[in-house]
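explain this chain.
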Amino acid sequence: MIKELWHSFPRVLEQKINGLLDVAEPNQAKAFQLYKACQRDGLWHESFEKFSDRIASYFSTPKLERRKSDLDQILDRPIDSVLYADFHLNFHNALVDNRSVLNIVSWAHNLMRVSIKTNSVVISLDVLTKTLHYITNPPLFEKAQDITFEDFCDAWKKIVFRLFGKVHDAEFTRIMNELQWLNTQLQESEKSPVDNSFFPTIYLTQTEIDWVNDVQLAVSAHLPAPKFPLSKGPQKQRLMDLERALRLYKIVQTSKLPDFVQHRENIRATILDRCAKLLQERAR
């Protein structure tokens, strides 16, 4: 599993970083801006404190489950689509959960340490924490959403140079080259077919496609994954592998033991990667 996870590391890291916005709340400045906009449009007439509490409950719902109608019920009257779009968050205006950031840092550090077989200071918890802090608290003109692996690498280079100058250049370049190679391999495998020579690697029924979609949505939102809809269970090897990973995920999903928590995040990332590949490579 470690080897499989390492090969998808760049893409899973992107998903984890961008996923921070799915569970974020607006920071104080953004909340106040939304408050004034709602006041201006006659959508809210009470205090800022009460407004903050109400929209906090809206943002506490996983992003995939949020609906405009939920916000309509919180406000004095239905919100128009233009203002509703302004409730979108990015890293300039979001308050990101620090524990979630540290979980990503720990995951990335452990996976790099084991896979690259190094304890170099450039992949230390401190360096990676500062890198993620730079990404999730970007300067005014830096990118604030849709973070790519290249964006992570750029931020990482800035932090390493800021902390050490060129002292660790050779080791950092070696590690970076391996990661860039991984990312290049992923990009090649993800390229859309340009002609009719494409052959899907797996044929799925609509029932199987719906199940994989539902699993992906549930696991993305940290919710219990649905069982396979047919009593005989999945019959295709890749779907059977996914179901086995889900059973393991269920075992560790509610545990609070530190070792299980780390294992849970690794399994979760593997499940999401398998779902994405199944949906991408299925027959259309």
User: Anything to note?
Assistant: DSSP finds 13 helices and two strands in the chain. The beta strands are 25-26, 94-95. Confidence is low (pLDDT under 50) at residues 194-199.
